[in-house]
Amino acid sequence: MPWHPTEAASITDQHHQAAATIPQQLTLLHPTSYRWRELTRRFQAYTEDPKAPSRQRTGTCRTCFYLDARLAGQAFTDYRCEACGRQASWHTTAIPRLCSACARYHVVCQHCGGSMD
Ligand SMILES: [Zn+2]
Ligand SMILES: [Zn+2]
């Protein structure tokens, strides 16, 4: 389904629900494992938002900025903005849902279309 401005709040709600399960996920992991350390580090950054200015400058919500673990390839990838339908290109294979102009205009995260929480 293409992104629509009315979706932003519910995308963010889903993000918050997913993030709220992280402490529970951590209890199931071994505290010396790489996964535990990585998830702990990401969750702490997500909670404290230490890079808020650069995060907001790049039009990215807290979930996509701190928690997104998708392994991004380094190849430029073409995609179509779901809001305006224009073709754009992205510097990794983890393509965003919106172009930067639409994300700025709607004040939403370029990657997921959720609110800039
Ligand atoms: Zn657009
Ligand atoms: Zn996002």
Short descriptors:
117 residues, 6 helices, 45% helix, binds zinc ion, mainly alpha, 2 strands, two-stranded antiparallel sheet
Polypeptide structure, described:
The chain has 117 residues and is mainly α. It has one domain (5-106). The chain is built from 6 helices and 2 strands. Strands 1-2 form a two-stranded antiparallel ribbon. The mean pLDDT is 88. The site of one zinc ion has 8 residues, from helix 6.
Order of helices and strands: HHHHHEEH
> How many helices does DSSP assign?
6
Main sheet overview: 2 strands, antiparallel
Distance between the termini: 23 Å
Strands of the biggest beta sheet: in what spatial order? 1-2
Low-confidence stretches: none
Bound molecules: zinc ion
Strand content: 5-15%
Summarize this entry quickly:
The protein has 117 residues and is mostly helical. It has helices at residues 8-20, 22-27, 34-48, 52-57, 62-67, 100-106; strands at 77-80, 87-90. The chain has a two-stranded antiparallel ribbon with strand order 1-2.
List the helices and strands and how they pair.
Blueprint: H1 8-20, H2 22-27, H3 34-48, H4 52-57, H5 62-67, E1 77-80, E2 87-90, H6 100-106
Antiparallel strand pairs: 1-2
The structure holds zinc ion (2 copies).
